[in-house]
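Structure tokens please, single chain.
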Amino acid sequence: MNVEPSQDRIIIFDTTLRDGEQCPGATLNVDEKLSIARQLARLGVDVIEAGFAYASPGDFEAVQKIAKTVGTEDGPVICSLARAIKADIEAAAESLKPAAKGRIHTFISTSDIHLEYQLRKTRAEVLAIAEEMVAYAKSFMDDVEFSPMDAARSDPEFLYQVLERTIAAGAKTVNIPDTVGYMTPSEFGDLIKGIKENVPNIDQAIISVHGHNDLGLAVANFLEAVKNGARQLECTINGIGERAGNASLEELVMALHVRRQYYNPFLGRPEESEEPLTNIDTKQIYKTSRLVSNLTGMLVQPNKAIVGANAFAHESGIHQDGVLKNKLTYEIMDAQSIGLTDNQIVLGKHSGRHAFSARLKELGFELSESELNKAFLKFKDLADKKKEITDWDLEAIANDEIQQAPELFRLELVQVSCGSNSQPTATVTLRTPAGEELTDAAIGTGPVDAVYKAINRVVNVPNQLIEFSVQSVTAGIDAIGEVTIRLRHQDRVFSGHAANTDIIVASAQAYVNALNRLYVALEKEETRSHNRTESLTNASCIKEEPAVVEFSREQA
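Here you go.
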């Protein structure tokens, strides 16, 4: 097998929709996953890990839909995760059928601590399973990736043996995960180097790396791995993921972009080469970061590298003086290289629908006819309130429209009364899923608290508000405010997002959005519970196996 064409560049494997979504509170619905997948394709990622097809019917549907819509001939490889179990692999293969280029990514633990306490299997058993399941995955499609989970804490000699056998069984990519974020850069580099030197058939596969940020070292570990032979990096937008998150895509890509002369020799290129080391369109980075942040409800910290609000801000007088004279004095990259532009006035209240639509397309938004109509009405409303409409304002309007939750409950009216010597009081009117308009009022510790209590009286779905944040889209007293909230129901977290020049209205809309997501989830659970009951009843009557199999899949 010839893998040489990939050895002089870095393959970017994005797992935002799989490992990133495992971040507490970052659950996405199918349409939101599809929206992110489309943007990841525009960003230029090589592989999209679209989900874990066997985990749930929702995950299966998301992988299948992304495979069909985004997995085109000129698009990225679409991948599904699968445990080293036949049922998982079969589900992955079925979900990936619509993709022009599909990949099954199967895994099993190899560290002694996982073998003893999680798998309760011997090394010999794990070795046999890994080899057999890679071969089984290979029977469905040519592109198979294998991961020895917790490789960083595995015995190196056993790890070499597992990798050799799985490559021989057909794995085109072998992924080396630092599953618990344990290693330091020099250790991780040595691990990759050891694999290169001790796995006889390693030249027949791409070495990939996957790592978590528990010690804040994931990006540094990956860059050291590149120096020692890793050619695929598994990362997420904004570094989201389980616990402290994954290696951050934007940090890795920009590190390789800014310091490409340093990394060129490690990839066999002339040191002075200006050719990019990845296929990423860096000007799509900021927009992708914003999209993922808005849809997941996971805010980007202001001092986050590359995409944080302060990443290109300078407050020190010395720094400001230097940047004004020459940006290179204190900036190692141009803000425009990640897609940030100046706040230029682009449209006003006299602008027409065609100009508005054209500008959104220039900014990379693809709205349906109904979404465009609603967004244009919001734009006209905003133009009456603001003298200066910026690209960031347009982005907020577009995002607010395309990221709406299913509109079951609809906010019709919100009115508040508050002041220094009065009790904050809110009145809200909501249209219910049945089309009925209900009005209620409540008092609270502040106007937003009063609004939320009034909404709860109407919707009557138990929940706990766990996060409320407000960000200004642009500067100025008339700026659009973006509100992101997260609420918990039992053990699940749901997010809501809205933007408006009136922060109270935005707060109410964001809360209703989150409640709509919660309401949809409850409806689906009720439907599934009803279907399970019917399936079990039928199975007990006619003794058919398929009903029981379907039940077990939903429980996975």
